[in-house]
Amino acid sequence: MSEIEEKKESSDIEPVKEKPSKLLAYPQMCAVESEDSTGFDIEVYLPGVDKDTIKLRMDSEYIYITGETETVRYSGFYSLCCPVEPEKAKTSYKEGLLKITVPYQEIKMHTIDVKIE
Questions:
Q1: Which domains does the chain have, with CATH numbers?
Q2: β-bridge partners, 80
Q3: What is the pLDDT of residue 109?
Q4: Helix (H) / strand (E) containing 64
Q5: Interatomic CA distance for residues 54 and 52, integer angstroms
Q6: pLDDT tens track for 4-56
Q7: Half-sphere exposure of residue 41, counting CA atoms within 13 Å on the CB side?
Q8: 5 contact partners, CB below 8 Å, separation of at least 6
Q9: Which of 68, 67, 71 is nearest to 22 (CA)?
């Protein structure tokens, strides 16, 4: 019992100094078909985020985006309904709005003619 009391009285224990954590938020995203129906026009709202902190990763079916302010970390993973060509994506960022224009992938159908009897 005295051993437990000695540990409680020890002055070697320092209080934990916690670093304030950032709020984790899912960025608002809007994706619409382009006017000429050749791909997507995507807008992602990242208020207060410095362009240098934005990371955008894409493949033919998904978009992953992160960005940070001093108090908020934005992180989102989005599925696209149609395959796109990420290597042809064009982006711009201004006043908290990231714009992405990406064309649809050309549909490659491997078909054969089937004889109808």
A1: 23-103 (2.60.40.790)
A2: none
A3: 75
A4: strand 62-68
A5: 6
A6: 555 555 556 667 667 668 899 999 999 999 999 999 999 999 999 999 999 99
A7: 7
A8: none
A9: 71
